[in-house]
Amino acid sequence: MEGYGIDNGIYGPYEQSERAEIYKIVIKELIKKGLAYPCFCSSEDLDEIREVQEATKQIPGYYGSYAKCRYLTVDEAIENIKNNKPYVIRFRSSGNHNNKIRVHDEIRGNIDIAENDIDVVILKSDGLPTYHFAHVVDDHFMKTTIVTRGEEWISSLPIHLEMFKALGWDAPKYAHLPLIQKLENGNRRKLSKRKDPEAAVTFFFEQGYPVQGVLIYLMSIANSNFEGWTIENKSFDLDKFKFDIHKMSLDGALFDLDKLSYFSKEYLSKLKAEEMTSLALEYASQYDKKLEALINKDKVFFTKIMNIERDKENPRKDYAKFSDIYPIVRFFYDEEYNKIISNGYPFDPNIKKDVIKKVLTDFISSNDYSLNEQDWFNSLKALGEKYGFASDRKAYKANKDKYLGTVADVASMLRVALTGNKNSPNLYYILHILDKDTINKRINNAIK
User: What CA–CA distance (Å, rounded) separates 350 from 346?
Assistant: First the structure.
């Protein structure tokens, strides 16, 4: 991540594997104080303890009289280690689950929860720390002031607070976030890394969602007043929005790809064409070789395409992600256009071929490329009226028998001839990006 490299910062090293010595020093200190001990119980031993607890309807876990290794003497523990008996290191809890403690969460306020009495594993047999231990040690030495994590960790909070207290360290503040959910068959469920590709960050990179677009969407989930702020300020600048942790909802937000696409379109539409080209190439060089080839063929030409209706007060919003670009713009390139039309032209079957030929033939000879957009569209209306097409939908609806269709049908003929598609960016801009020879060649080919 930019600005967060492993070599940056003053609280490194940042890779857990390189912090092993730090963890060992703290472990030794806990063992010296009698706050941690080696546990030699095998998985079979732990299964046996669990079976006894289930049979007697006790709370499951390694605690109290069930924590057999906490009662080993130092000599017994040393002897086991000398005999190469595998072990983990456990934290020696002094809590009682019958007692309640009050903890504070920055989002939820005060919570009453059972005290921890489980002797949790803090160092695994492979020498790596568990999350419980790494969290306490890393966030202490990195001077973390607030820990934000999913609400599933609320039940572990008594463990972490007890460890901080045992080590004589001040605990950070905590904010437990509601889980992002997904709607499936009408029911809400937790977003799953196993089931849902969008649960992984790589999904958004591969699809080409702009990073800023994703962050804007996440802010709309995080703070209930963000969307209102964007409308009032006509801005998506996250640096200007004052995030308030107390405005986070306790209800898990539904992950909504349509809403993400909305924010991404809004963001991308406001970029300059040059910046859009640069970001598209950055994405394409890693994930979309076809798009990369088109851009590198002629960056100036591609930038013109990206600039279609971009300088308007209300810019066009064709792209939600960079992977949307190739299928939308490929027709601009002759070799791609020829592939598109290889299966034929999708002209409206309700309009006679002879009519289509006449309209397109007349367009070639009469189109004035010097007109501005509005005047050009008026000329297209005049062309349509000449061949029996209404200049607007209202006139067509008032007297359908009089007309073959509307100016929209005329535009569609031209669009299909020039792009091979029923949908495309603004026709006026297409006519000014493609050269006249290419335009005439494509229309004549469609007429044939």
Answer: 11
DSSP three-state, residue 188? strand
Shared domain for 388 and 281, answered yes or no, is no
Q: Does residue 254 sit within a domain?
A: yes
Least confident of 186-190, 293-297, 385-389: 186-190
- Name the residue range of residue 307's domain: 273-332
Q: State whether 355 and 319 are in the same domain.
A: no
Do 421 and 371 lie in one domain? The reply is yes
- Interatomic CA distance for residues 151 and 108, integer angstroms: 10
**Does residue 8 lie within any of the structural domains?**
no
Percent of the residues in the chain that have a pLDDT greater than 90, as a whole number = 85
CATH number at residue 203: 1.10.1160
- Alpha-helical regions (H) of 157-288: 157-167, 201-207, 211-222, 226-233, 257-269, 273-287
Question: Residues 27, 157: one domain?
Answer: yes
b/e map of 87-108 (b: 16 or more CB within 10 Å)?
A: bbbbbebebebeeeeebeeebb
Q: Is residue 133 assigned to a domain?
A: yes
**d(Cα 184, Cα 182) in Å, to the nearest integer?**
6
* Cβ contacts of 34 within 8 Å, gap of 6 or more: 92
Domain of 358, CATH number, reads: 1.10.10.350
- CA torsion sign for 130, 133, 136, 141 is negative
> How many independent structural domains does the chain possess?
4
pLDDT in tens, 95-115: 999 999 999 999 999 999 999
**Count of CB atoms within 10 A of residue 210's CB?**
22
Q: Tell me the per-residue pLDDT of 317-376, one tens digit each, with 9 for 90 and over.
A: 999 999 999 999 999 999 999 999 999 999 999 999 999 999 999 999 999 999 999 999
The residue count of the chain comes to 448
In angstroms, rounded to a whole number, what is the distance separating the alpha carbons of residues 157 and 222?
22
pLDDT per position as a tens digit, 236-271: 999 999 999 888 888 878 889 999 999 999 999 999
406 and 442 both lie in a single domain: yes
Last residue of a domain, one of 117, 144, 177: 177
CB atoms within 10 A of CB 38: 21
Per the domain annotation, does 150 fall within a domain? yes
What single letter denotes the amino acid at residue 147?
Answer: V
Contacts of 266 (CB under 8 A, 6+ apart): 213, 216, 236, 317
